[in-house]
Structures are given as C-alpha cells and as structure tokens.
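Forwarding the complex inputs:
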Amino acid sequence: MRVTISVEVNGTKHEREVETRTLLVHFLREDLGLTGTHVGCETSLCGACTIHMDGLAVKSCTQLAVQADGAKITTIEGLADNGNLHPMQQAFWDEHGLQCGYCTPGMIMAATKLVEDNPQATEREIREGLKGNLCRCTGYHNIVKAVAAAAKAGAPS
Amino acid sequence: MYPAEFRYHRASSVEEALDLLDRNPGAKFLAGGHSLIPMMKLRLAQPEVLIDIGRLDELAGVSANGDSLSIGSLTTHSEIASSPELRKHCPILAEAASKIADPQVRNKGTIGGNLAHADPASDLPAVLVALGATIQLRSRDGARAVPASDFFVELLTTSLAENEIMTAVEVPKLGAGTGSTYLKVEHPASGYAVCGAAAVVTVEGGTWTSASLAFNGVTATPLAALEVVEALIGSDATDQAIDRAVESRLSVPDPMSDLYASGEYRAALAAAYGKRALKSARDRAG
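Prediction (whole assembly, two chains):
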C-alpha cells in the first residue's frame, strides 16, 4: 500500500508517495537524498538516526514515514546557516568531538536539544542526556567536552 | 530492516479506531511505535493492518479526577516524567518514566503502548501494580476498568481483548505521610530493567500503616511482594523491620534467566533492591 505524505524538512516542503512500511530514516536518505542522517543499529539503541521532529529529538529508524505526515523536521543538513556552522557543530570541530564520525550527526542532533532544554547542563546531565547515542570509537570524553563548550558559548554572559 | 507490508489507516477519533478494529480483525494500534515497530522489523509481529491512533488528542495528557489522576494512554514517557501534577501527587510514576531508555525514546514512547506490550523488563508495570492503578479499556460494547495487578497475564500478554483500546491509566494521588521510590538495575546496553523495585509506603507515628512493593524484570509479569508487606504492616518503620521482612518473606517464583543475569542473581537483586526501595520510600514519607 502506498500513501501520499507531506513533510517540511529543513524549511522545504515535500510531497511524496511512500510505501506504508518505509521508515522515516530511509525516506530522508533515499527519497529526499539527505544522507547526513545515519542508519546505525536500526533497533532504536544507537541514536545515529536522531533528527528533530516537531521540536523533539527522535530516532528516525523507529518511525514510519507515514507517521511524519504534516511534521516539521530538521536534519543535520538543516543546522548550518548559510555555510556558518551551528554552534554545536563548531564546538564538535573545536573540541575534536568525533573520531570516525559515524555517530556525529545523531550526537549533534541530540546535543542541540539537550542544551536547548537545559542550557546549564552539568557534565553528568550531558552524559545522561546523550544516553541514547552510542559512539563505537568510545570518543565520549571529547563529545561531552564539545557539548559543554557549546552550552557555555550559547549561555548569556 | 523494513517491516513486512501492511495496510495503514489513520483514525481521527476513538470511535473510528474501534470501528476500524472491528472491520480488520488482527489489526494493531500504532501510537509511538517504539514497541511495535521494532517487533515488526524482527517479524515478531506481522499485522496486516495498522491503525494509527497517534493523533487522538482525546487520549493524551494528565488530568486530575478527585483523589486520582487520569493519564491518557497516548501520554509519552517524557510528558509523564515532566508532568507537574504527577511529580507532585504521584512522584514514583514520574521517577520511573524518567528512567525509561533514553530521551529520544521517551519523546515517542507512550504509557499505553508500554503497558499493552507488557515487556517483563519494562519500567512501568510494577510501579502501577505498587500504586494500585487501574487500566481503563474501551470497546464498541462499552468500557471496563482492570486493576493493574490483573492486567498482566503472561509474558507479553495482557487482558486487553481483541476488540478493545486502552484509553487511560488511573493512579491515586499520594497524600502526606506517603513516600514512594522506584529503583532499578538496568541492562547496560538496552536500559531495560534487570530488576526494578517499586515501593509505596505510608508511615504514621513511626509505624507502617500501608505498604506495597512490586518488581519488574524478575518474573514474567510484575511480582507483587504481598507477604513482605503483610509482615511490615503494624511494625516499626525501622531498617531492621525491612531487612527481616524481606529476608524471611520475599519469595520469587520462577525468576527469569538469560545470558546477562541468572534467575538466582535476579532473586538476589530483588531482595537487595526491595530493601533499598522500601527504606527510600519510608525516608521520603518523612
């Protein structure tokens, strides 16, 4: 069965016909060509597929594309503004918050919501807030440093 | 990993959802999808029809109802964890919801989906049993209320009938003098409870006047430690009384066993965490 859905992704409206069983992550990557969102474990554990949907960080491997009908979505491609990196992207760069980079888009999408919800997050809160994102390189230390740096940079001085 | 093919309907009211269910026997309701979609990917569930109830606002949110609080079945774990009403009047439920999986999963997973799935290692079932919660169900024939202690029938099996939908969960408002705690030992990879202990106690004048203790993750359905509680009531609210009651009266029939934790280990965790949960709940009863 195929149904037509309409979604707004990174500010652009799209209307597409999808098979009902299409997962949102595959819709983003294969139908819209937005391959920045990664497919990791496909079992809602690793968080590589994290996106923002209607203001919430969610795992797009555990959503059907049809469930996103009418939703506003932001993917990693939508964070930078006219080529200027988002403060969280910049902090990951500055603090070397990545090794192989596979988990990075999901980490950044989860981290931006974490800091938005809790701008004063402590190291412990950052670690707990990123519980749903796994880094198989185990590069957590610099990831946490990057998130703390971005929180500090965004905090009113 | 795609699910098998299915037909998809989106319901715009509870009535329509029940009509669709009647016309499509074997159909499954889709809410947050965080239990159902993983099951469908693994072909552990292969429904021919999904009825999307994810937009039924009438089933979402927390409302006060006299001495109890009603939590719509579509309320997400994040909403439960941050609900001011629940944090004030039923803090153990907010505490347990805040310990489920991770923020992204809590943003989509719903209390109704969690309970209907009845995973033995899930966090909410024992909490609802300890609270004496009631599950509200509806079909085209009418509504019925099932005590949480009767709702979980077997592993992944509930008393929800083929033609029913879960509409809400009713929990009591806990009064002054009542304390509650949920503690868990979680599997380091999945976050599921290897052992979760839920305690709700009332202490008056240094004596237990009411208490309940239940466990997740240890047996196939939530384990209510009724004998432990029986031994406590009327005795002094001391650490010694708790230790004595748990050590002499806790029985764990048929504990689950897997590669990560043997049944014997789970039973030992239940004793240790049962004591800790009771002590913490007593201290919170203040």
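Chain A touches chain B through 30 residues (CB under 8 Å).
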